[in-house]
């Protein structure tokens, strides 16, 4: 519960000290829990957009956005943590000046953000966001510019997630799937996207050899999904071999085993039986 003495200067000073204390305690808690180093680091806008693949942008104008949707910054990632708590005392003077203005009810200009999926990244107004968090506000006014990307921002929580997103984007450039086929290709290990890309390309090369015909990447991707991936996953599901993995992870796991057993893409009961035995 927020303590208010009725003196804006004193209250603003207290707000800043509490925000700094929470930031330090959060770092200590993360260290004690052995959490990843990036758990309290805000997401860098440029790295997120690069990982997802920029398509374009458009201005949406002024909107009211939720504070908890603001997860990153264009250029101030070292001054604040993930919850926009100040990481040092050098921001104190400007921070407290804004806090006093907020407490006096003075008009505060909207911040400026980029929207990527459901996530927002501050380009102007970091101190205003920090003060709003400290004063327990839920929303803030913002001028929003939406950035469209090649793949979705869903699932991004920490900086480390960008590696998976980047490799997924590269995979979908090499294997241009769409619809349910695109949605089915989900992997948690970024390196597996490279392995799956090479698997599809090798399958497509053999297909063109067998049929003595050239196919482009989109055609190979579609046929791989319909003629290889779906039938194999169906058998794996029926045999109870998927478990808690994604379909793509299950496919890769048995695909690697299959190449130890045979050098063709035949799938039959004998192969499944050998796979079950490990």
TrEMBL record:
InterPro entries: ParB/Sulfiredoxin_sf. SUPFAM superfamilies: ParB/Sulfiredoxin (SSF110849). This is Chromosome partitioning protein ParB.
């Amino acid at each position: 519960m927020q303590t208010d003495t009725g003196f804006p200067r004193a209250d603003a000073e207290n707000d800043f000290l509490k925000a700094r204390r929470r930031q330090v305690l959060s770092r200590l808690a993360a260290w004690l829990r052995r959490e990843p180093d990036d758990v309290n680091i805000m997401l860098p806008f440029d790295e997120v957009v690069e990982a997802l693949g920029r398509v374009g942008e458009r201005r949406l104008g002024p909107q009211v956005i939720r504070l908890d949707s603001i997860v990153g910054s264009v250029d101030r990632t070292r001054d604040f943590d993930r919850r926009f708590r100040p990481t040092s005392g050098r921001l104190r003077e400007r921070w407290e000046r804004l806090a006093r203005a907020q407490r006096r009810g003075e008009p505060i200009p909207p911040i400026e953000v980029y929207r990527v999926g459901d996530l927002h990244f501050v380009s102007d107004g970091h101190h205003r966001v920090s003060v709003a968090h400290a004063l327990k506000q839920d929303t803030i006014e913002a001028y929003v510019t939406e950035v469209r990307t090649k793949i979705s921002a869903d699932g991004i929580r920490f900086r480390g997630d960008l590696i998976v997103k980047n490799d997924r984007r590269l995979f979908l450039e090499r294997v241009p799937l769409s619809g349910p086929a695109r949605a089915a290709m989900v992997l948690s290990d970024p390196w597996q996207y490279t392995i799956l890309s090479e698997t599809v390309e090798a399958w497509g090369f053999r297909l063109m050899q067998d049929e003595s015909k050239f196919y482009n990447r989109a055609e190979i991707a579609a046929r791989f999904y319909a003629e290889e991936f779906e039938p194999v996953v169906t058998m794996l599901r029926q045999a109870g071999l998927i478990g808690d993995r994604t379909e793509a992870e299950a496919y890769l796991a048995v695909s690697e085993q299959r190449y130890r057993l045979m050098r063709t893409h035949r799938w039959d009961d004998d192969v499944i039986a050998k796979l079950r035995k490990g």
